[in-house]
UniProtKB/TrEMBL annotation:
NCBIfam families: phnA (TIGR00686). Coiled coil: none annotated. Residues 3-31 form the Protein YjdM N-terminal domain. This is Zinc ribbon domain-containing protein YjdM. Belongs to the YjdM family. Residues 44-111 form the Protein YjdM C-terminal domain. It holds the Pfam family YjdM. It comes from the Bacteria.
């Protein structure tokens, strides 16, 4: 029996193989063989130090003014299906009622 690699996201040893992918039943992360070594190098963490990944849901921890508008993103706003990007504002997302935005990871926590 072959040794399966641990999950690159949560380090769980309970991974299993599904066709050409590996799956972690604890955090739901899926990856291809060899993909864990070729990560794009984005090591982005939330305000509490938890690692973020594409597709995560986060919660805003501070009222954020929207530049060029009178709108405010309120504390506790849930943002679903985030996308990580490089730069100062390292989260690309769409907020209900406001639209597409870029957020700083220091103002969110993983939901």
């Amino acid at each position: 029996m072959s040794e399966l690699p641990p999950c690159p996201q949560c380090q769980s040893t309970y991974t299993y193989e599904d066709r050409d992918h590996f799956v972690c039943p604890e955090c739901g992360h899926e990856w291809r063989a060899g993909e864990a070594e070729m990560e794009d190098g984005l090591n982005i963490k939330d305000a509490n130090g938890n690692p973020l990944a594409d597709g995560d849901t986060v919660t805003v921890i501070k009222d954020l003014k929207v530049k060029g508008s009178s709108l405010v993103v309120k504390v506790g706003t849930k943002v679903k299906n985030i996308r990580l990007v490089e730069g100062d504002h390292d989260i690309d997302c769409k907020i209900d009622g406001i639209g597409p935005m870029k957020l700083k990871s220091e103002f969110v926590k993983k939901a």
